[in-house]
Amino acid sequence: MPQLPARVTATEIALTLLGELRLRHGPLLFHQSGGCCDGSAPMCFSVSDFKVGQHDVFLGVLGEDTPVYIGGQQFPLWRHTQLIIDAVPGRGAGFSLEAPTGRRFLTRSRVFDPDELALLGETPPTEAPISCALPDPTA
């Protein structure tokens, strides 16, 4: 049986930062919410400082032991994509543990191909026509 594609993965840079934070703070978890601004960035917390909600969806594990969750209202919007946690220079706002390091976590994504979607039991998203009705300047 083919292996299911990972719903979440991380770059080597993100895994290195995650390892540094784990040494300093102990066991960690990520939560991907759908807030605005930095609220849409993946947030890294000590497992003792974050309570996973009953509607949060488990996406997978990064490294050896860092679970990743996404808000239940966000999962339907992202279910067709693989989330890729990366780390970039800069300082994000918020309560994520990397904030004081001068680096911040960032979510990138890629759309699963049709074979991966089939393995996950997902149907390909349908594209809605985009229409932009401009006002008639002669009216």
Shape: globular
Name of the CATH superfamily: HesB-like domain
Q: How many structural domains in the coordinates?
A: 1
Corresponding CATH architecture: Sandwich
Biggest β-sheet: strands ordered side by side in the sheet: 3-2-5-4
Proportion of strand residues: 25-35%
Element-level helix/strand string: EHEEEEHEEH
- What is the CATH level 1 assignment? Mainly Beta
By CATH, the topology is Hypothetical Protein Aq_1857, Chain: A
Look at the structure and give the mean pLDDT.
87
Write up this protein.
There is one protein chain. With 139 residues, the chain is α/β, with parallel strands linked by helices. It has a single domain (8-120), classed as HesB-like domain (Hypothetical Protein Aq_1857, Chain: A), CATH 2.60.300. The chain has 3 helices and 7 strands; from the N terminus they run E-H-E-E-E-E-H-E-E-H. The chain has helices spanning 12-25, 75-78, 114-120, and strands at residues 8-10, 28-32, 42-46, 57-62, 66-70, 81-89, 103-111. A hairpin with a 3-residue loop joins strand 4 and strand 5. The longest helix is centred in the first third of the chain and has 14 residues, at 12-25. The protein is globular and about 40 Å long. The model has no long low-confidence stretch (mean pLDDT 87).
